[in-house]
Automatic annotation (TrEMBL):
InterPro entries: Ni_insertion (IPR002822). This is Pyridinium-3,5-bisthiocarboxylic acid mononucleotide nickel insertion protein. HAMAP family: LarC (MF_01074). Keywords: Lyase, Nickel. It catalyses: Ni(II)-pyridinium-3,5-bisthiocarboxylate mononucleotide = pyridinium-3,5-bisthiocarboxylate mononucleotide + Ni(2+). The gene is larC.
Length: 411
């Protein structure tokens, strides 16, 4: 059960940093995203130092300004300085990353990207993930792209990442595996659960580019509300006249400190009503941030309920599966929302010597709400032999006397 009193700090509880939104509507590759982040202001020198920490002396990064279908963009090129083996094991890349000292979240993020590629490769080729070896995806330039992007995110102070739908392309491509259909198998595996755009000429999304998007971005969404601070345009290798072959990024600050949450909803008219309390309790114990019912009237005048479940993005898939298991529904709607949440802390006050916890919500250090924990109030009422109503009022008075009052600073 998720107990707010003991809940660990989540990402949304921290001070908001800068947000990054990735526009991959024309496709995405590792070097394109790296170019876009350099164009947005990340220093190539800092990125080179990060890459050197993982693969010392293996590559040199250079940046040039280019045009793609009339649009200015930054192209980052990775030149290998030493020979590359024909393939490299995922376990070796994991070791290289774990031994390097990269800033902030860069090691965690880069490892997550390669872990996603490894899972996709394992599924595409039907091998165990620990046995996966990469061909082009494990080459120096892909390692440089992934590490470079993750170091650039640190340099830009990026905290939260989201991205739009990804264009995949069509046709065929020749790689170490031979001639493959586009989207290539690894890209399609990586694209599971992400919104994609079919069509377009050639290979518009590569495995490295797709993995960077799905592993680093919390959600697929249109450009979110933010105050843009920097915009970056990163060029792909080809220049085709009808479509700028670029990835764009927008770096900005959020207008209010919010966290990303997923809302799952289903209309249900045929569940035995005695089962609903168990359904809500089951979803909460499986990690829902909240779960509730709204009475509705459905088609044909049928009384029914909308089941709503609020979930952290990384729990949403699991909770959707639980919702399908717990209620007889043919579909669950899913949407992504921004939630502004007060910072929460707990204090204990006493009512006639009986402890009662009080949940205190603060905004910018000032108390914005003071709420007695009702389970504690009910227990204290039983212990004291008093009505809950009076214990509730006395708890609020005790909290007030202790200085827990709306508008005051929390000490
Ligand atoms: O390197 C590997 S294992 C690899 C797997 C696949 C599959 O879809 S399976 C595809 N490719 C092709 O290699 C090039 C380079 O990809 P980057 O992500 O490194 O830019 C690209 O054409 C892929 O389709 C490689
Ligand atoms: Ni492959």
């Amino acid at each position: 059960m998720h107990d707010d009193a003991t809940r660990p700090a989540r990402r949304g509880d921290e001070q908001p940093g800068r947000r990054l939104w990735i526009d991959a509507a024309a496709g995405v590759a590792g070097d394109m995203l790296l170019g876009a982040l350099v164009d947005a202001g990340a220093s190539l020198e800092t990125i080179q130092a990060g890459v050197d920490a993982v693969i010392p002396g293996a590559v040199r990064l250079t940046q040039t300004e280019v045009e793609r279908a009339g649009m200015r963009a930054t192209k980052v090129d990775v030149t290998s300085l030493v020979p590359d083996p024909p393939h490299r094991h995922w376990t070796e890349i994991r070791r290289l990353l774990s031994q390097a000292r990269l800033p902030g979240a860069a090691t965690r993020r880069a490892t997550a990207v390669f872990a996603r590629i490894a899972e996709a490769e394992a599924r595409a080729h039907g091998v165990d993930v620990e046995q996966v070896h990469f061909h082009e995806v494990g080459a120096w330039d892909s390692i440089a792209d992934v590490v470079g992007v993750c170091v650039a995110l640190e340099a830009l102070g990026v905290h939260t990442i989201t991205a739009g739908p990804v264009a995949l392309g069509s046709g065929t491509v020749r790689a170490a595996h031979g001639e493959m259909p586009v989207p290539v198998p690894a890209v399609l595996e990586l694209a599971r659960g992400w919104q994609v755009r079919a069509g377009g000429q050639g290979e518009l999304a590569t495995p490295t580019g797709m993995a960077l998007v799905v592993a680093l971005a919390e959600a697929c969404e249109p450009l979110p509300d933010l105050v843009p601070a920097a915009v970056g345009v990163g060029a792909g290798t080809r220049d085709v006249p009808e479509r700028p072959n670029v990835v764009r990024v927008v770096v900005g600050t959020q207008t209010s400190p919010t966290e990303r949450v997923v809302l799952l909803e289903a209309n249900v008219d045929d569940l035995d009503p005695r089962l609903w309390p168990g359904v809500l309790a089951g979803l909460m114990s499986d990690g829902a941030l909240d779960a509730w019912l709204t009475p509705i009237v459905m088609k044909k005048g049928r009384p029914a309920h909308t089941l709503a479940v609020l979930a952290a993005p990384d729990r949403a898939d699991h909770l959707m599966a639980r919702a399908f298991a717990l209620v007889p529904t043919l579909g669950v709607r899913r949407s992504t929302l921004d939630r502004a949440a007060l910072e929460r802390t707990w204090r204990t006050v006493e009512v006639d010597g009986v402890p009662v916890r009080v949940k205190i919500g603060t905004r910018a250090g000032a108390i914005a709400s003071v709420t007695p924990e009702f389970d504690d109030v009910a227990r204290a009422a039983r212990d004291l032999g008093e009505p809950e109503r009076s214990v509730l009022a006395r708890t609020i008075a005790s909290a007030d006397a202790a200085g827990y009052r709306v508008g005051r600073a929390l000490e």
